[in-house]
Amino acid sequence: MHFEIYKDKAGEFRFRIKATNGNVLALSEGYKAKASAVNAIDRIKSDAASAETTDNS
After folding, report:
1. Any idea which architecture 2-48 has in CATH?
2. What SS3 state is found at 56?
3. pLDDT tens digits for 1-49?
4. Which regions of 1-57 does DSSP assign to beta strands (E)?
5. C-alpha pair distances (Å), 24 with each of 7, 32, 57
């Protein structure tokens, strides 16, 4: 799995999380600054291990 940062058509920075097979697992919101997208990725990396799963089914 990896994070991929890219610029959208509106010129905002976004990232997507991709599986090793290339499938997109998640998409981010748009950020005006690339540093903001990188900070969001860093937060996800640090917080994901302790994240809970909620089953609303």
Report:
1. 2-Layer Sandwich (3.30)
2. coil
3. 999 999 999 999 999 999 999 999 999 999 999 999 999 999 999 999 8
4. 2-7, 13-18, 24-27
5. 16, 22, 23
The two structure tokens encoding residue 56: 């609303």
Alpha helices in the chain (DSSP H): 34-47
Q: 31 pairs with which residues across the strands?
A: 13
Distance CA 14, CA 5 (A): 6
Identity of the residue numbered 6: Y
What's the predicted TM-score (pTM) here?
Answer: 0.86
Q: Where are the domains of the chain?
A: 2-48
